[in-house]
Amino acid sequence: MTVQSLDSVLQEGILVDRKWLKDKGFERTAVDYYLRSGKLESIAHGIYRKPSPPLKWQNVVYSLIHLGFHVHVGHKTALGFHGFQHYLALGGEKDICLYCEENLPKWVNEVGIKQTFVDMPRDPFNERETGIEQVPFGTWDWPIPYSLTERAFIELVSTVTTAEEIQSTGLMMEGAANLRPEIVQSLLEECHQVKAKRLFLWLAREKNHAWYNRIDKSRIDLGTGKRQIIKGGRLDEEYQITVPRKDVNGQAEPIF
């Protein structure tokens, strides 16, 4: 293989492994030669790139896609991208929330960037493409899949377990007046997590956004029975979930 051949198949900023290189025709001896000559550099065990400027976390995400992983940027990271940064913790993007059909490889957190990748444990959607948009990144406009704002909110509420998290999510929801009801409707119909759907709708009702009144709840499977979101909360009668307590005439509402 010539250096030009390597240049023709490997763009600057993409991370690859030996299997990928072998699939492209580069045997171990050729890879070792490129490493010795400085045409390739090792940045984690078994992970290589062409020498180039410091990596951004988007380089890692696109490299995962390039290597065949089914992954998208979601949850709080997507919400930050869509303009909700001021509701998130100070200090920048420390955690990058990824949903991946496969387990994320360990090397993603060994490549020397300041952010930490979080492998989100449960995707509340059955369909991988629902509520996803492709966002161009870098010189070559590499497409990186992000959750739309509407999907990211449902992903967020699917992980809520404390009153503090509900309060924080509620503050974000205050800024969600422009969610698109047709997208919300479609996502709630396709979401398989009853808890997430009920809590999302409860928050939307509490914030009294206009789009909430355009949601047809008869088309959404909200399950049956009560669901405990937080311990020691009050029971919301409409959605049958426990939420943070409120005093009503000095008395606490019922819990289960």
Describe this structure in words.
- With 256 residues, the chain is of the alpha+beta class.
- Helix content is 34%, strand content 17%.
- It has nine helices and twelve strands.
- The radius of gyration is 22 Å and the shape is elongated.
- The chain starts with a helix and ends with a strand.
Biggest β-sheet description: 3 strands, antiparallel
Strand content: 15-25%
Structural class: alpha+beta
- Overall mean pLDDT stands at 91
Helix and strand topology:
Elements lengths: L2 H7 L6 E2 H6 L4 H10 L3 E4 L2 E3 L7 H10 L4 E3 L1 H10 L10 E6 L15 E4 L12 E6 L4 E6 L1 H9 L5 H12 L6 H10 L3 H14 L26 E3 L4 E3 L3 E2 L2 E2 L4
Parallel strand pairs: 5-6
Antiparallel strand pairs: 1-3, 2-3, 4-5, 7-8, 9-10, 11-12
Summarize the structure.
With 256 residues, the chain is α+β, with helices and mostly antiparallel strands. Helices cover 34% and strands 17% of the residues. The protein has 9 helices and 12 strands.
